[in-house]
Amino acid sequence: MRGWWRDLTDLVLPADCGGCGRARAVLCPRCRTALSGSRPRRVRPDPAPPGLPAVHAAARYADETRAVLLAHKERGALALAGPLGTALAGAVRAGLREACSPGRGDVRSPGARGPVLLVPVPSARRAVRARGHDPARRIALAAAGELRRRGTPARVLAVLRQRHPVADQSGLDARQRRDNLAGALAVAPGGARLLGGGPVVLVDDLMTTGASLAEAARALRAAGRGPDGLDPGERTYRKTKSAVYPRAAWEGREERKTGPGKTGSNGGGHVNRELICAAVVAASPDAFEINRN
Fold it and tell me: Percent of the chain, pLDDT > 70?
């Protein structure tokens, strides 16, 4: 009977730690510390692809962390989504703290108008079929739950789609990855209107060259712009201002919020853009070396 129960448990929980292989542990204390025990830091690859937002990572992609990510992604150890989501939530909080720090008047505090919106970078459809799940989306859902438990309203918006197939990224250098992904992502029809409710944070499980995050950020920014190249808030602001001043009189001026009901480019109001930053569970060790301070 005891052996039967153990076999049944193995169908639900991994028999060994996803990081080091220790028996009877989803994730042993040592590997959990490797994943979430350090303060998340801002990282940036070198060279960084154009348009890459500020990225915060929970851990280096090495040793136990690498093993945990591969166990979840490639071997279907779905119980690891919980601790991976906890690590991702820490990176999200670090990015929001930096973006909303004093002196950053272009970014409002999280939750002022809606929850933090976690947008996972989508996996290729063929990869999702082969794995039987979308790793980034699963981890994002776990991270949103962890953020809510700690008092930060959050939800997942899986609005990014692949517009066309892309080649396997493994074996490609930084430039080849940028070329491979150029124009590959877009926001699903109707998705753009869902992105205005709160700060937008791109999330993924891993960053190597940053090409995927840069392409995802481009797609999100493009979704909010019309043929004139302006986002809806800026378009409204310009229409409002042009009704009062000739275009030449206000274009390029730095105006400030001076009282209730006033708008300006340096305070609240229409021209403030929502935050687009990125958070990942792990990043290339090289990216950590560049930003070790």
Answer: 69
Rounded Cα gap, residues 54 and 45, in angstroms: 11
Quick one: pLDDT at residue 12?
Answer: 52
CA distance 280 to 202: 8
How far apart CA 204 and CA 119 sit, in angstroms, is 9
Produce one character per residue of 176-185: b if its CB has 16 or more CB atoms within 10 Å, e if not.
ebbebbeebb
pLDDT score, position 209: 92
Q: Which two tokens stand for residue 84?
A: 């991976």
The 8 Å CB, 24+ separation contacts for 70-75 are 71/14, 71/18, 71/19, 72/18, 72/135, 72/138, 72/139, 72/205, 73/131, 73/135, 73/205, 74/131
The pLDDT, as a whole number, for residue 162 is 85
Residue 72 CB neighbours (<10 A): 25
Helix (H) or strand (E) holding 145: helix 135-149
pLDDT top residue among 178 and 230 = 178
- Look at the block and give the residue holding tokens 């209730």: 260
The two counts, helices (H) then strands (E), for the chain are 11, 8
**Residue pair 60/286 in contact by the 8 Å Cβ criterion:** no
User: Residues 29-32: contacts with CB within 8 Å, 24+ apart?
Assistant: 30/64, 31/64, 31/67, 31/68, 32/83
Q: Give residue 67's Cα distance to chain centre.
A: 21
* Structure confidence at residue 248 as a pLDDT band (50, 70, 90): very low
Cα maximum dimension of the chain: 84
Residue 227 predicted with pLDDT over 60: no
Helices 81-99, 135-149: crossing angle, 10 deg rounding:
70
- Rounded to two decimals, the pTM is 0.74
